[in-house]
Specification:
With 661 residues, the chain is an alpha/beta fold. The protein is built from 22 helices and 27 strands. The mean pLDDT is 96.
C-alpha cells in the first residue's frame, strides 16, 4: 500500500512537469531534462583563468541539484583585448585543459552536460581591466554605459580573433567539455558585428547582412572543421536589443534562420545590451515570461532547438512555456543561484522549498563591481566548498532567537538543521521583518514569496514560533538557552530637528507596516534609498502628490543602477518630484523646511505629511544590554548588528548559526 501511494505521488509529479523533465536533444547530445543553467559571470575562476576549486564546486552544486545542461560563465578567448572580468575562465592556451577536465568530470558524475561559453567583450569592457589598453570593437562607436571610445579592429585582427574562438573551442573539446556556446548577445563583440548599430565597417565584415554575419560564420565553420560534426555548437543571440538602431526582433529571426542554415545546433535567445541592461537581467518589476514572444517567434522559424531566458522563477511557469511551445529548453539563471536544487525540488514535488530569486540584482552588482558573485537569498553561493556540511551537533539544546526577520529566520533554519531546539520570538503578527515590509510597495511580490518560503522551511523543521511576543529576561531564563540570537532589526533614524515629533511626521516603515491609506495629499519623503523610493511609489499609487528629497548629489546613493532606473521610471510616471542636495532642517504644519546644500539657501515645500526614510541604525537599548549581561552565549545578527541589505541579514544569520559551537 505504501509503495502504491508513493508511485501515485511520483506519477502526479511527473505529469505535472511532463515537459520540464522530458529528455532533450542538442545535435547528437542527449540531455536528461529541459533545464539549462545559462552563462552568468561569477569571478570565481583563478586569476590565471583556470577553473578554480571554488568555481568547480559552484557548478557541481547545480549539477547535483538536477540541472540538465550547464553553460559556463563568459570564457575568455583573448588575453589582450578580451578580458571581461579579472577572474574569469579562459581557453587561451592548453595549460587550461587539466582544470577544465576536473570541472567536466565534477559535472558529468551527475549525468549533467556542460558547454563552455566563448566570449569577447569588445567595447563592453574598460581599459583599466585591459591593463590600460584601449578597448576594441568593429567600429569606433562608444557604449553609452561604458563611456570609452573603442579602437576599430583591423581586418587582420578580426581574422586572428576568429582563430582564437576556434582554438578556444578545441581546448574545450580536448578537456572533455560537451559543446560550446558563442556569445553573440548582450552587445558583446560577436553581437557588435551582428548589429547595424555598432557595425559600420566597410570591409568584408561590415555593411550587408551577410557581411555582418561573416565574423560568426567563420567562427562556426572553423569550429566545425576543427572539432568535427558531432561537437555541438549553440549561439546566444538577442531576440531584440531594445536599443534604437540595433537588432530588432525581425532581424533576430532572420539571423536565427541563417545560423541554422550553416549548421548551428541550437539557438539561445536572450535580449538587450549594456545600454538596455534591464532587459538582460531584469529588476523586480518585470514579471515572469515577459519576453516569451521573442523565443516563440524564433522557434516558429527554425527546426533546431531553442533555449530561452524568460525571467523564470517557478517550475510552474517553466512548464507552461514548454507546454505552449515558446521554447524547447528553459534557461534558469538566477533561479539556480538562489536555489541550486531548483530542479531536484521541482521533480520531487517540493516546490514550496525552492528558495526564490527576489530580482534584487545583488548578484550582477557584485560581478560588475569586479567582485565574486553573491546571492542575497543564498549565502552559500560561491562558498559551496566552505559550507558543505552542517554539523548535526545540536543535541536538542535550546537556542532562543528574538526577531523573525530574514536574519532570524535564516538562523532558525540552519540551527534546526543542526539539531538545536529553536524557539523564535516575533513581536509582530507576521514573520519577515523588513523583507515583509518591503513586499508591500508595488511590484514587490517576490519579497513576499521569500518570506513565505522561509516561514515554510522553519515550520517544516519544527521551529517553535511564538508570534506577537517579546520575551522578558525571566522568560528567556526559563528556557535555559544554550545560546540567544538577537535579530530585532534596526531602528529608524529620526534626527532631532524642529517639529520632527509632530503628528504630520511619519516613519516610512510605519506607513508600510500599517498600510496607511493616505490619499490625495501632498507628501514629502526625506531620503532616497530604496525604502524611501518604494514608499514614495506606494504613496503615489494611491493618488498622492509626492516629492522625494535627498541631501546627496544623486538620487538613490548606493542603489544599483538597474534597480534605481526601474523604480524611478515608475515614480516619474506618477509625477513624483526627485530633488537632490536638499537637507531636511525642520517641519511645521503644512510645510517642510530644507537647506539647498548647493547654494546654501533655505527652501520650503508645502506638505500635509513628511515621511522619514533616512535609514536605520542598530538596536541599542536596555533590553539588549540586559540579555548580554544575563547570558554568556549571545549572537547579534542582521540590522541589530549592522544596518544592511537583505544579503547582509541572511548572510549573518547563516554564518553565525552555521558556526555556533
Amino acid at each position: 500500500m505504501i509503495n502504491e501511494k508513493l508511485n501515485k505521488q511520483w506519477e502526479a509529479i511527473i505529469m505535472k512537469y511532463n515537459c520540464l523533465f522530458k529528455k532533450g536533444q542538442i545535435g547528437k547530445l542527449t540531455l536528461k531534462n529541459r533545464i539549462v543553467m545559462p552563462a552568468m559571470g561569477t569571478s570565481l575562476a583563478s586569476s590565471t583563468g583556470e577553473a578554480s576549486d571554488r568555481i568547480i564546486k559552484y557548478y557541481e552544486e547545480r549539477a547535483k541539484g538536477g540541472c540538465g545542461l550547464i553553460i559556463t560563465e563568459i570564457t575568455r578567448v583573448d588575453d589582450e583585448t578580451g578580458i571581461g572580468t579579472p577572474n574569469q575562465l579562459s581557453v587561451t592556451n592548453t595549460s587550461k585543459i587539466p582544470r577544465l577536465e576536473r570541472l567536466a568530470r565534477a559535472v558529468h558524475k551527475y549525468d549533467t552536460k556542460i558547454f563552455l561559453q566563448l566570449h569577447h567583450p569588445g567595447r563592453e569592457t574598460y581599459s583599466s581591466i585591459l591593463n590600460g589598453k584601449q578597448i576594441v570593437a568593429p567600429s569606433p562607436i562608444p557604449c553609452k554605459t561604458i563611456g570609452e571610445v573603442p579602437r576599430e579592429l583591423t581586418t587582420k585582427e578580426v581574422e586572428e580573433l576568429v582563430k582564437k574562438f576556434v582554438i578556444g573551442a578545441k581546448i574545450a573539446q580536448m578537456a572533455g567539455i560537451d559543446g560550446v556556446e558563442l556569445h553573440g548577445a548582450h552587445g558583446y563583440l560577436i553581437g557588435q558585428f551582428l548589429s547595424p548599430l555598432t557595425n559600420k565597417r566597410t570591409d568584408k565584415y561590415g555593411g550587408s547582412f551577410i557581411n555582418r554575419m561573416r565574423f560568426i560564420t567563420e567562427i562556426i565553420l572553423g569550429i566545425r572543421h576543427i572539432c568535427g560534426p558531432n561537437f555541438p555548437i549553440i549561439t546566444r543571440i538577442d531576440g531584440d536589443e531594445f536599443v534604437e538602431g540595433g537588432i530588432t526582433h525581425e532581424e533576430a529571426i532572420k539571423m536565427a534562420r541563417y545560423l541554422e542554415s550553416i549548421g548551428v545546433d541550437a539557438i539561445n535567445v536572450s535580449s538587450g545590451t549594456y545600454e538596455s541592461a534591464v532587459t538582460i537581467i531584469e529588476p523586480v518589476s518585470y514579471p515572469e515570461g515577459w519576453k516569451r514572444h521573442l523565443a516563440h517567434k524564433i522557434k516558429e522559424n527554425v527546426n533546431i532547438p531553442v533555449i530561452a531566458c524568460n525571467n523564470i522563477k517557478t517550475p510552474e511557469m517553466a512548464e507552461k512555456l514548454l507546454e505552449e511551445g515558446d521554447c524547447d529548453f528553459i534557461a534558469l539563471g538566477r533561479a539556480q543561484l538562489a536555489d541550486p536544487e531548483f530542479a531536484k525540488k521541482a521533480m520531487e514535488g517540493r516546490e514550496k522549498e525552492i528558495r526564490p530569486c527576489i530580482s534584487c540584482l545583488h548578484c550582477i552588482e557584485q560581478v560588475m563591481n569586479l567582485k565574486a558573485i553573491e546571492c542575497a537569498v543564498n549565502p552559500r553561493l560561491g562558498y559551496e566548498g566552505e559550507y558543505d556540511h552542517y554539523e548535526k551537533d545540536g543535541n536538542s539544546r535550546v537556542v532562543a532567537i528574538i526577531g523573525g526577520g530574514p536574519a532570524g529566520m535564516e538562523a532558525a533554519r540552519v540551527l534546526a538543521i543542526r539539531g538545536f531546539k529553536v524557539v523564535l520570538f516575533e513581536k509582530r503578527g507576521n514573520l519577515g521583518g523588513s523583507v515583509y515590509l518591503g513586499s508591500i510597495p508595488p511590484c514587490k511580490d517576490k519579497l513576499k514569496a521569500l518570506v513565505d518560503n522561509m516561514e515554510y522551511q522553519i515550520k517544516k523543521l519544527g521551529v517553535d514560533i511564538r508570534m506577537n511576543c517579546t520575551p522578558t529576561i525571566e522568560d528567556l531564563k526559563k528556557l535555559n538557552p544554550y545560546a540567544i540570537f538577537i535579530a530585532m532589526g534596526g531602528r529608524a533614524i529620526v534626527p532631532e530637528l524642529p517639529g520632527i515629533h509632530r503628528d504630520n511626521v511619519l516613519i516610512a516603515t510605519d506607513v508600510l507596516e500599517k498600510k496607511m491609506d493616505i490619499r490625495d495629499k501632498k507628501i514629502v519623503v526625506a531620503g532616497s534609498g530604496m525604502t524611501g523610493l518604494e514608499t514614495a511609489d506606494y504613496l503615489a499609487e494611491k493618488g498622492n502628490k509626492v516629492d522625494v528629497i535627498e541631501m546627496q548629489k544623486e538620487i538613490g546613493p548606493g542603489v544599483y543602477g538597474s534597480v534605481l532606473y526601474d523604480v524611478t521610471t515608475r515614480l516619474k510616471k506618477f509625477g513624483v518630484g526627485l530633488f537632490t542636495q536638499r537637507q531636511l532642517i525642520g517641519v511645521e504644519a503644512g510645510k517642510v523646511h530644507m537647506l539647498n546644500t548647493y547654494n546654501g539657501k533655505k527652501v520650503t515645500m508645502e506638505a500635509d505629511y513628511l515621511v522619514l526614510a533616512l535609514g536605520v541604525s542598530p538596536q541599542v537599548n536596555g533590553f539588549v544590554e540586559d540579555i548580554v549581561k544575563n547570558f554568556k552565549n549571545v549572537k547579534i545578527i542582521g540590522d541589530s548588528e549592522k544596518a544592511g541589505k537583505v544579503y547582509d541579514a541572511i548572510q549573518t544569520g547563516f554564518d553565525k548559526a552555521y558556526s555556533l559551537e
